[in-house]
């Protein structure tokens, strides 16, 4: 009787431990499809090594934009999704007075930035 109880407890412990390990995952950076996170590196559709347009958004509200002219640093704020279904994104370039106001929409690995009837489509790298 004692060995059966020990065997049963061992099976229960093994099942509990395997459940605990499989429920953990590393998905903090990217977020699920339809996520409101834009953290990561994004490449403009049509961007090439000779003519890059790459934006990187950090978790700390800082980022970089790489273009043919070089790399520019910026800070950004991303507001929650509004009634229009977009996230207002404000980018403040550090070495200039330029402030860009976008409406951001993320669907999976695609980020759309809209401003003044212009839409820029970025893909997650």
Structure description:
By secondary structure, the chain is an alpha+beta fold. The protein has a domain at 40-124: Lipocalin (Beta Barrel), CATH 2.40.128. The chain is 17% helix and 42% strand. It has one helix and eight strands; from the N terminus they run H-E-E-E-E-E-E-E-E. It has an eight-stranded antiparallel β-barrel. The longest helix has 21 residues, at 2-22. The chain is elongated.
Helix and strand layout, with pairings?
Elements: H1 2-22, E1 40-44, E2 54-57, E3 62-67, E4 70-78, E5 87-93, E6 99-107, E7 110-115, E8 118-124
Q: Overall 3D geometry?
A: elongated
Q: In the CATH classification, which architecture of the domain at 40-124 applies?
A: Beta Barrel
Number of strands: 8
For the biggest β-sheet, the strand order reads 1-2-3-4-5-6-7-8
Q: Which fold name is given in CATH as the topology of the domain at 40-124?
A: Lipocalin
Top CATH class of the domain at 40-124: Mainly Beta
Helix segment count? 1
Low-pLDDT runs: 25-34
- Name the average pLDDT: 84
Percent helix, as a range, is: 10-25%
Largest sheet: 8 strands, antiparallel, barrel
What series of H and E elements makes up the topology?
Answer: HEEEEEEEE
- Beta-strand content estimate: 35-45%
Distance between the termini: 59 Å
Radius of gyration: 22 Å
Decide which structural class fits the backbone. Answer: alpha+beta
Signal peptide: 1-20
Keywords: Signal
Protein name: Lipocalin-like domain-containing protein
